TrEMBL record:
Function: Removes the N-terminal methionine from nascent proteins. The N-terminal methionine is often cleaved when the second residue in the primary sequence is small and uncharged (Met-Ala-, Cys, Gly, Pro, Ser, Thr, or Val). Requires deformylation of the N(alpha)-formylated initiator methionine before it can be hydrolyzed.
Pfam families (alphabetical): Peptidase_M24
Known partners and oligomeric status: Monomer.
Organism (species): Maribacter aquimaris
Gene symbol of the encoding locus: map
Binding site for a divalent metal cation 1: D94, D105, E232
Protein name per UniProt: Methionine aminopeptidase
Positions of the Peptidase M24 domain: 11-237
SUPFAM superfamilies named in the record: Creatinase/aminopeptidase (SSF55920)
Catalytic reaction annotation: Release of N-terminal amino acids, preferentially methionine, from peptides and arylamides
Residues reported in the UniProt entry to bind a divalent metal cation 2: D105, H168, E201, E232
InterPro entries cross-referenced by the UniProt entry: Creatinase/aminopeptidase-like, Pept_M24, Pept_M24_MAP, Pept_M24A_MAP1
Cofactor dependence: Co(2+); Zn(2+); Mn(2+); Fe(2+)
Family note: Belongs to the peptidase M24A family. Methionine aminopeptidase type 1 subfamily.
Cofactor binding comment, as recorded: Binds 2 divalent metal cations per subunit. Has a high-affinity and a low affinity metal-binding site. The true nature of the physiological cofactor is under debate. The enzyme is active with cobalt, zinc, manganese or divalent iron ions. Most likely, methionine aminopeptidases function as mononuclear Fe(2+)-metalloproteases under physiological conditions, and the catalytically relevant metal-binding site has been assigned to the histidine-containing high-affinity site.
Length: 272
């Protein structure tokens, strides 16, 4: 069942999403060669708690940490550990914060030092596919329209679209209806209505779309060992149109990146 949110609830969800956005912005300055994902996890947990929220993933389905940390060939759900990041790695950081009874949940794949042009392109295309999907999240469209748009764009670059893991509705529960696959057929699936809130999250593999799971019961990695990227935003339908509740602007601010990619999806100015 899809749980539609009131404008007041959407503002509460924006608060949760912005705590995640700020956490990722804080981490952006900390991601570098030599740093461990366990250290970053601790920083994030303290930061989230200092902002009056609790880490959304900690204990969720018994997940042991606050961040999902998935380097290189790991797709999602990697567990933080004591292995230092090295120059040329990528690290997908998925973060959740729970405040006022609502979840924020979004993700960004960071470069560790200098990465190869091939990897840079994978990140760029995955992030672009996220916005291409978000554009389709509007009144009158359906779940399949978002998935179709993401899949078409991604596969045109020769990349693999992961099938087993999908985006989702978001609210008082981390995972609500509907499921939001990154593949699909136009005009198929549940219809979007005003007040829906979802997490759209393309998971894109440089090679095969096939994945495996580690024996830890969590970590998902590519079957061919090639890198994978993950970008996720929280989006509401406001005035019939997609409205971003999360933002990468804190990350860009920390990294000195100029970007207007989100501007068309913010009906309200984000005050950094
Ligand atoms: Mg997430
Ligand atoms: Mg999610």
């Amino acid at each position: 069942m899809i749980i539609v949110k009131t404008p007041e609830e959407i503002e509460l969800m924006r608060e949760s999403a912005l705590i995640v956005s700020k956490t990722l912005g804080m981490l952006a300055s900390e991601v570098k060669p030599g740093v461990t994902t366990l250290y970053l996890d601790k920083l994030a947990e303290d930061f989230i708690r200092d902002h009056g929220a609790v880490p959304g993933f900690l204990g969720l389905y018994d997940f042991p940490n606050s961040l999902c940390m998935s380097p290189n060939a790991q797709v999602v759900h990697g567990i933080p550990n004591a292995t230092p990041l090295v120059e040329g790695d990528i690290i997908s950081i998925d973060c959740g914060a729970f405040k006022n009874n609502y979840h924020g949940d979004h993700a960004y794949t960071f470069e560790v030092g200098e990465v190869t042009p091939e990897v840079k392109k994978l990140l760029e295309v995955t992030k672009q596919s996220l916005y291409i999907g978000i554009k389709e999240f509007k009144v009158g469209n359906r779940v399949g329209d978002v998935g179709y748009a993401i899949q078409k764009f991604t596969e045109a670059h020769g990349y693999g679209v992961v099938r087993e893991l999908v985006g989702h509705g978001l609210g008082q529960k981390m995972h609500e209806d509907p499921e939001m696959p990154n593949y699909g057929r136009r005009g198929r699936g549940k219809k979007f209505v005003e007040g829906m809130v979802v997490a759209i999250e393309p998971m894109t593999n440089m090679g095969t779309k096939r994945i495996n799971q580690l024996k830890d019961g969590w970590t998902i990695l590519t079957a061919d060992g090639k890198p994978s990227a993950h970008f996720e935003h929280d989006v509401a339908i406001v005035n019939g149109k997609p409205e971003l509740l999360s933002t990468f602007k804190y990350i860009y601010d920390a990294l000195g990146i100029e970007s207007d990619e989100e501007d068309e999806f913010h009906q309200k100015e984000i005050q950094l």
